[in-house]
TrEMBL record:
<keyword id="KW-0328">Glycosyltransferase</keyword>
<keyword id="KW-0808">Transferase</keyword>
<dbReference type="InterPro" id="IPR003385">
    <property type="entry name" value="Glyco_hydro_77"/>
</dbReference>
<comment type="similarity">
    <text>Belongs to the disproportionating enzyme family.</text>
</comment>
<protein>
    <recommendedName>
        <fullName>4-alpha-glucanotransferase</fullName>
        <ecNumber>2.4.1.25</ecNumber>
    </recommendedName>
</protein>
<dbReference type="GO" id="GO:0004134">
    <property type="term" value="F:4-alpha-glucanotransferase activity"/>
</dbReference>
<keyword id="KW-0119">Carbohydrate metabolism</keyword>
<dbReference type="Pfam" id="PF02446">
    <property type="entry name" value="Glyco_hydro_77"/>
</dbReference>
<dbReference type="InterPro" id="IPR017853">
    <property type="entry name" value="GH"/>
</dbReference>
Length: 502
């Protein structure tokens, strides 16, 4: 990755009229803002569907897209809706927060109208046939899974009322395909809407010189189409219940560790099949993104395996992962790929070796470097390397203002001295300046810090449920002074490389 910079801002956090950020006008405006300030990258969180808890890291599918991101105005432009179809509908009670429960009720009837209008046209029928052919590896299974899930009252896969449906009895599934054919069609068409709108947006970004950094969770949900259709990929019992689940041991985020609940992969099976599912998953990801951040890279060297039924992650154990064999198989099939490794948390010699063997850039978090006031932290900026991606913090960290406020006086004094903070310089300006001045080839600023927002704008608090993933910027948040400062440090520290490329 060349010396450049970008912004971390998920689609859901964009402003707009539909209660959540979408692929509509505001997304295009955001790209224009990136161009105006000479950024190179737009980093987002996973685009896959979200499940209980609204986390983009817990998805019903490793491939299917989050239909909350479909923009209604673009469906109007395509002729599938009219403005009257959503006039007067309440999508949010606060401009700066997403209300997922409200969206769940408000969006579906509107999308159903769009789907009906789409299918009533000859063009729509043809587009769907083409889309089904292009997405044949996953679309039918996903549409059936979601239709059955709705049929069984949105229960998790393992709790469906019909055991034969859980076990994929073919005669049973054939019966449901007929009974639920309208719902299956609905789920196919909204995926078509999602992918067509996203590809149009991504094309606009690329044409403007903006590359998309996407995000791939290492795990999939226990309540997912992959667990339902490809059980051999995971360590499950006969009822498709996980025998062990993923998480991480006690750390700075939690004294009892983190209990993620995802099923653990059956790595022996993956090795026997030449890691073909992983090759497929990576390949599908690069259809959506220009660069790919792989979450929890540590889990490929060794991972924290927790017996199913545990209430905390304390009683887990470290188990060896596939290591470089996986990435050698991916490279042999797909060639060298622009991958970023999320190598945060407990990084031991095994994890360091895997990162070195894979030669992917790792991640550096400025906030982590200043807790130790001796300057000896492994995260202090003066030990960064060029082959890295630096952040003030990620979606899992506090925003700069909240982080600084929670430091003690000695730590604050150390930060101010280390960064040579000026008297008239805000905390966010200080940290962004330090970020952009690092030797790391890539610097990614969170939008909350660019906007100088308070602690309440934090995106996620790990190991908590509720109140996460809801932050949105408002149309009035971005002021000229924010653009001017971002452009200033981008040019000052030689990260505004777009002009060289054009």
């Amino acid at each position: 990755m060349k010396r450049a910079s970008g912004i971390l801002m998920h689609i859901t956090s964009l402003p707009g009229e539909f209660g959540i950020g979408t692929f509509g006008k505001e997304a295009y405006d955001f790209i224009d803002f990136l161009v105006e300030t000479k950024q190179t990258y737009w980093q987002i969180l996973p685009l896959t569907t979200t499940s209980y808890g609204d986390s983009p890291y817990q998805s019903f599918s490793a491939v299917a897209g989050n239909t909350n991101l479909i923009d209604f105005n673009k469906l109007v432009d395509a002729g599938y809706l009219s403005p009257a179809d959503f006039a007067g509908v309440t999508f949010s009670h606060a401009d700066n927060q997403v209300d997922y429960a409200l969206l769940f009720e408000a969006r579906r009837p509107i999308l159903e109208k769009a789907v009906a209008n789409f299918l009533a046209s000859q063009e729509g029928v043809k587009l769907l046939a083409d889309f089904e052919a292009e997405q044949s590896t996953w679309l039918q299974d996903y549409a059936e899974f979601m239709s059955l899930k709705e049929h069984f009252g949105l229960k998790a896969l393992q709790e469906w009322d019909d055991q034969k449906a859980i076990y994929r009895d073919e005669e049973t599934l054939a019966s449901y395909r007929e009974e639920l054919k309208d719902a299956i069609l609905y789920h196919k068409v909204v995926q078509l809407f999602f992918f067509s709108q996203w590809q149009e947006l991504k094309t606009y970004a690329n044409e403007k010189g903006i590359a998309i950094i996407g995000d791939m969770p290492i795990y999939v949900s226990a309540d997912s189409v992959e667990v339902w259709t490809q059980s051999d990929l995971f360590k499950l019992d006969d009822a498709k219940q996980p025998l062990c689940i993923a998480g991480c041991p006690p750390d700075d985020f939690s004294d009892v560790g983190q209990l993620w609940g995802n099923p653990i992969y059956n790595w022996d099976y993956h090795a026997e099949t030449g890691y073909k599912w992983w090759i497929y998953r990576i390949q599908e990801s690069f259809k959506l993104y220009d660069y790919l951040r792989i979450d929890h890279f540590k889990g490929f060297s060794d991972f924290w395996e927790i017996p199913a039924g545990e209430e905390t992650a304390i009683n887990g154990k470290w188990v060896s992962g596939p290591n470089i064999d996986l990435f050698n198989a991916i490279k042999a099939e797909l060639g060298d790929l622009p991958i970023i490794a999320e190598d945060l948390g407990y990084i031991d010699d095994k994890a360091k070796k895997l990162l070195a063997d894979a030669a992917f850039p790792g991640m550096k978090i400025l906030e982590f470097g200043f807790y130790d006031v001796t300057g000896q932290s492994i995260d202090i900026p003066h030990v960064y390397t060029q082959n890295s991606v630096a952040y003030v913090g990620t979606h899992d960290n506090e925003v700069a203002n909240g982080w600084y406020d929670n430091l003690d006086e000695e730590q604050q004094a150390f930060v101010d001295a280390y960064t040579n903070r000026k008297e008239d310089e805000s905390v966010t300006q200080m940290m962004l300046r330090e970020l952009f001045s690092t030797v790391s080839n890539t610097a990614i600023a969170s939008m909350q810090d660019v906007l100088d927002l308070p602690a309440e704008s934090r995106m996620n608090i790990p190991n908590t449920l509720g109140g996460n993933w809801v932050w949105r910027m408002t149309k009035d948040d971005l002021k000229q002074e924010h653009k001017d400062y971002l452009l200033k440090i981008t040019e000052l520290y030689a990260r505004g490389t777009q002009e060289d490329d054009n």
